[in-house]
Amino acid sequence: MKTQVAIIGAGPSGLLLGQLLHQAGIQTLILERQSADYVLGRIRAGVLEQGMVDLLREAGVSQRMDAEGLVHDGFELALNGQLTHIDLKALTGGQSVMVYGQTEVTRDLMDARAAAGAITLYNAREVQPHGLKTDQPWLTFEHEGETFRLECDYVAGCDGFHGVARQAIPAESLKVFERVYPFGWLGILADTPPVHEELVYAKHARGFALCSMRSPTRSRYYLQVPVEESVDAWSDQRFWDELKVRLPSHLAEQLVTGPSIEKSIAPLRSFVVEPMQYGRLFLLGDAAHIVPPTGAKGLNLAASDVSTLFRILLKVYREGRVELLEKYSEICLRRVWKAERFSWWMTSMLHQFPEADGFSQRIAESELAYFINSHAGRTTIAENYVGLPYEAIE
Ligand code: APR
Ligand code: PHB
Questions:
Q1: Which positions make up the signal peptide (predicted)?
Q2: What is the number of other CB atoms lying within 10 angstroms of the CB of residue 122?
């Protein structure tokens, strides 16, 4: 087997890169460990920056997003029982975000790939990259009981945090930066109308809470819980009761509750590896970096990596600009670290840290109060939330 760009992983990173390359006439083959249904069963984030929206439009997969996605011109921060509106549009000179679930983005990309006749091999096992420092790398893998060899020009490691791509890089060639937080997010999906028209990020003495949504009839809510918490300890009733306590009372009174259709706990982590390239292997998305979800940056960072690698590969194949390949990592990491900073900051400001002493807690409270009561502070939050610009590839 032979292709130009071998992609490991059919999450949003792999599928979006595959779609853009395919449209540009560059051959790809995607190897995915799970089945398509399994990939679509994962409930993940749902806020797209303008840059990602534009990229999905460029990739020709925006039809349903443009029809069904919810454009949000702002969001709310709840502190001491009061809402502060962060007017994204006014504070950023007209930018906004799109609320559209990652699951839907993935489904649209899968449909587009199938319609284009490009190949994704699901249930591909034992994927292993080889010869990454040579001009002719290859992957070995097992599919339906047979072993295959896939030769390629480049390998895109889009296989998430637990994938093989990053592990194929010798440990001494990678620098790892990591912070693990002492809490997780318990998330619930329910077919109930959202409590508020905007997303609400709430800081409360009992812990952080977030009110989000997927549509006018489907809500997504999260609660900060201790990292060792079990989802079995949380009946729907307990979840709704705790959420009400953490929301300003006027919102709690309006909250419509109902049976959950999904409930899960995700740990919070900040993680970056440097560099994001090893020979002809490039890491994208969660394979290279993780952010805590408080700034809604995970999916969006994956999209900016995809944009960067796509534009570089385009110039490599069309203009022979191979020197650009060496720039991939530094270009990505500049944006990655800014999003890491913002995600860490939002997390630090809005959560309760079990080990924090009284002084640290007061500092965090007053830092947040300062930011939300200052035009400059709100502008900083808004500018980061809508997403920092993508670097041009020249
Ligand atoms: N071989 C093949 N595929 C693999 C392997 C492997 N060894 N390991 C993992 N995969 C697949 C996973 O099954 C998954 O479908 O790679 C895919 C990775 O997808 P994601 O984890 O969704 O990562 P990514 O595409 O980078 O998406 C960006 O940002 O913060 C997040 O929630 C956000 O998941 C989103 C991510
Ligand atoms: C979500 O809707 O799942 C969501 C929204 C905003 C975040 C994180 C998650 O910051």
A1: none
A2: 17
Ligand nearest to the CA of 123: 1
Measured in residues, the chain has a length of 394
293 catalytic, yes or no?
A: yes
CATH architecture, range 5-71+97-177+268-353:
3-Layer(bba) Sandwich (3.50)
By alpha-carbon position, which residue is closest to atom 9 of ligand 2? 45
Residue 283: Cβ-neighbour burial (10 angstroms; 0-12, 13-18, 19+):
buried
**Is the shortest distance between the CB of 137 and ligand 2 below 6 Å?**
no
Annotation marks residue 201 as catalytic:
yes
User: Domain residue spans in the chain?
Assistant: 5-71+97-177+268-353
* Ligand nearest to the Cα of 303, by number: 1
Report the distance separating Cα 157 and Cα 9, nearest Å: 7
Phi-psi region of 260 (alpha: psi -120 to 50; beta: other; left: phi over 0): beta
Instruction: Please identify which of the residues 12, 194, 248, 293 carries the catalytic annotation.
Output: 293
Model confidence, pTM: 0.97
